[in-house]
Amino acid sequence: SSQSLDLRLPTPGCYADPVRAGMDADAVFDGMTEHLFFTLGKLATSASLRDLYMALSFAVRDRLMSRYLTSQETIRARPQKTVAYLSAEFLIGPQLNNNLLNLGIKKEAEEALKRFGIESLNEILEVEEEPGLGNGGLGRLAACYMESLASLQVPAVGYGIRYEFGIFNQLIRDGWQVEVTDKWLKGGWPWELPQPDEACLVGFGGQTESYTDDNGNYRSRWIPSEHAIGVPHDVPVLGYRVNSCDRLRLWRADATESFDFYAFNIGDYYGAVEEKVASETLSKVLYPNDGTDEGRRLRLKQQHFFVSCSLQDMLRSLEKRSIAVEEFPNHWTVQLNDTHPAIAVAELMRLLIDQHRLDWDKAWEITNRSVAYTNHTLLPEALEKWDLSLFKNLLPRHLELIYEINRRFLQQVRLKYPGNDLILRKLSIIDEEGGKAIRMAHLATIGAHHVNGVAALHSDLIKRQLLPEFAQLWPEKFTNVTNGVTPRRWVALANPELSKLLDKEIGPNWITNMDLLLELEKKENDSNFLDLFASAKLSGKRKLAGYIHRQTGVLVDPSSLFDVQVKRIHQYKRQHLNALQVIAQYLRIKNGITKNIAPRTVIFGGKAAPGYFMAKLMIRFINGIADVVNADPDMDGLLRVVFLPDYNVKLGEQVYPATDLSEQISTAGKEASGTGNMKFAMNGALTIGTLDGANVEIRDRVGAENFFLFGKTESEIMELRDQGYSPNSFIAESNELQETLKLIEVGHFSNGDSELFRPIINILTGNDPFFVMADFDDYLRAQDEVSKAWKKSKKWNRMALLNTARSGFFSSDRSIREYCQSIWKVKPLPVEISCEK
Ligand code: T68
């Protein structure tokens, strides 16, 4: 029905579309002209590129409004369960191109732009600044999932925070990372719709009081000492060529007016303004994932702020439709994207008990039936804990509720393990070791009906290592949903050359059914096709080479092997292992051992958390190596090293299609899944990687012969650690490793400064927590395999093709279908746009 609608036709008389926005080039041109004139106050003759970007964006936004409003109206009229995806981060990337693609009016927009003298849509897309409302993989996953939900026509709302400043912009100065404030909202952002009438009030601090209610029941009430107002800013999330348009609802914190009025009366105008400024800092800035203890209190405030607004919003939606609060689990399924929104367990209990007057058991049943939790990390330092005194000071009523949740839960544990105090201490929400703290992963696990990891290996390790006692208690609660990425952004938009080839070869349906890519297997020995596949890659590499030259001044050869590691900089991701390998190759070339060398361009990109010293030093280290390598004529035609500044979604779109070799080299057991690994494979890059996260499943699917495996397995790493790992025993056995370390120590990559990279040497030769030394030799061996394979270009191209052909499993459409079936129990709700004649 809705599938058969030709969405590119004008939609006259459609519901809620008073401007009857047509989809042809004339209509897009007229829309742009009107927005230039009326919205932007500009004449077409004096419009800048940015003006044209804004005008086109508004014109496109107009054209998805009918779908957006009809989608909301459909769920109102035909109530069914809706997904509430709660995430502190949504790294959505640029919006214009994605909306043009999903609406199906890219050609029409290009035609309209020509009439403004713009020859290429890219000129306009270049202008768009992306909202950096996330740190990395976790935030980007949330964005891919929202896009797949809409494309699968599943009713969903993504709830999060509208940070005024997102992730910082990264500059490289003298090889060091410099952070610059991300002012993504300057000049206005055309994709959001503020809804001040739907604002919510959130309390903080103060104390609780006990009292007896009218029925003689003992109750508690919270009297907060401050409040903030959450104003929703909605971003439409349009599905691919369907009418379904979901939304992101991002909350901005405003000051409450009552304080202002009071201050005006007593004459303390400036005091009132200060109070306002203080409460508006709540949604001011996104916090980095590896920060120190900086801003911890504000971070907890942010979490409670957006979670409370979101839950109030869900409850209000029931009230508006006269649905009883007891029905909550039939209308909302609440997914916690890591523990950042885990306070939802306590907040939903509070809203149900204190405001909706439900008794404990009913409230708990509703909470538990509604909430599910996704874990994204096993790293102990990344598991969220809140200092008890901080928590009590900010959320006293929630602490009471958590104590009661814990008390009842521990009763259950006592029944199952009578007399076992050790297990009680292990399972308790309250960590009693050292200063008391709330373990958010425990709160989430107890409150949720399902707990999932993000790749098969990771989900298994959750059960075996992270929460074994919980997994024993509730085996059926624990499950896996391997991550996925949206093929719309990561293939169709990012890689137009490959997309054209796929369309021609297998038809356009791969975009929504990635399993169709398997048909490409037939072409594995077709030299003609392999050449076409390789030339699509070459075109991506040429574009990236141009970008690299403009940004860094380094000239790279598009015919060399593009060897890429882009991701946040972290010791467990081991960018330093890659850097050491580059030095080893440099030494071989210097020593004239070039027989087994393939010409390579080694590209790094990624941000380091501002407070993470070792990560920042790793960036400096890579740039030190790049300076020496790129200045040495002996390296010409053989080796180039590039650090791409300011890696973000937009740059990722240039990088994935241009990559031959994908570096996925984390210590086994440390990377929960990875999602960049999937984007590379879809775009026909081969992976060099460890058996970590989703690498395991990528290798299983693309075939071991099309994947460069190296390194210790997770169990071998554990064994090494238990035996008392000593990196020096590995160093002693490897001459190349000794020479590599020596060259760093003498200051060869730091202009003779033998101190600069000392901390890196010390950590690698000290306790080497991420087993870099243990994996070095095997990594070098695998890199030699890569060089050998690169020299047989037809074989390489076949391996690359098979990676694309067999990557369909890693579409986020598959992941979302799994969540819908096994965790959320939600069905699609097709949206019909009925046009009057
Ligand atoms: C990532 N986690 C995992 N965390 O590291 C990655 N953390 O393996 C996985 O593929 C991805 O999640 C999606 O599942 C993160 O990106 C954060 O960014 C983060 C942010 C704030 C606090 C802690």
UniProtKB/TrEMBL annotation:
Keywords: Carbohydrate metabolism, Glycogen metabolism, Glycosyltransferase, Phosphoprotein, Pyridoxal phosphate, Transferase
Top EC group: transferase
Coiled-coil annotated spans: none
Residues with PTM N6-(pyridoxal phosphate)lysine: K679
PANTHER family: GLYCOGEN PHOSPHORYLASE, GLYCOGEN PHOSPHORYLASE, LIVER FORM
Needed co-factor(s): pyridoxal 5'-phosphate
Sequence similarity: Belongs to the glycogen phosphorylase family.
UniProt-listed Enzyme Commission number(s): 2.4.1.1
SUPFAM superfamilies per record: UDP-Glycosyltransferase/glycogen phosphorylase
Protein name: Alpha-1,4 glucan phosphorylase
Pfam families referenced in this protein's UniProt entry, alphabetically: Phosphorylase
Alphabetized InterPro entries for the sequence: Glycg_phsphrylas, Glyco_trans_35, Pyridoxal_P_attach_site
Job of this protein: Phosphorylase is an important allosteric enzyme in carbohydrate metabolism. Enzymes from different sources differ in their regulatory mechanisms and in their natural substrates. However, all known phosphorylases share catalytic and structural properties. Allosteric enzyme that catalyzes the rate-limiting step in glycogen catabolism, the phosphorolytic cleavage of glycogen to produce glucose-1-phosphate, and plays a central role in maintaining cellular and organismal glucose homeostasis.
A GO molecular function held by the record: glycogen phosphorylase activity
Catalytic activity: [(1->4)-alpha-D-glucosyl](n) + phosphate = [(1->4)-alpha-D-glucosyl](n-1) + alpha-D-glucose 1-phosphate
One Gene Ontology cellular component annotation held by this UniProt entry: cytoplasm
PROSITE patterns in the record: PHOSPHORYLASE
The keyword Glycosyltransferase appears for this protein: yes
Kinase in keyword set: no
GO biological process: glycogen catabolic process
